[in-house]
Amino acid sequence: MNRLLSKLACLSLSALPLSAWQNEVTTKKPGPHLKIPPVHLSFKVSWDGKINSANVDFLFGKPDKRYRPHIIPQLWGESSGIAKELLPYHYNFTFFMRKEDY
Fold it and tell me: Which are the contacts of 30, defined by CB distance < 8 A and separation ≥ 6?
């Protein structure tokens, strides 16, 4: 019964016409943000600023000759300190975004 109600709610919401502001936000024309310089951001995550718990790195816009039509953001990190003993984790993500869709 709950699934049926949620499906009906989704269908009724999708049938609503777009608001006027949505046409302004959604566009297929490239915006002024296509030339973003490469940036590397590093973050230290902590518990209340006292105990380090993770390291996070975000690299955006690194040029790659193999994928010229793409913007390639990368994100990686891991737990550190006491958090590494309690909840060890490590992650690495690479995204491929087409410049014309950005």
Answer: 99, 100, 102
pTM, two decimal places: 0.58
Contact 33, 102 (CB under 8 A): yes
Q: CA 3: distance to chain centroid?
A: 29
Q: Cα 82 vs. chain centroid, distance in angstroms?
A: 27
Q: What is the pLDDT along the chain (102 residues), one digit of tens a residue?
A: 556 666 555 555 555 566 666 666 766 666 665 567 889 999 999 888 888 899 999 998 887 888 878 888 899 999 998 888 888 999 999 988 887 766
Contact at 8 Å (CB) between 61 and 75? no
Tokens representing 99? 């410049």
Our CA dihedral for 50, 73, 29, 34, rounded to 10 degrees, sits at 90
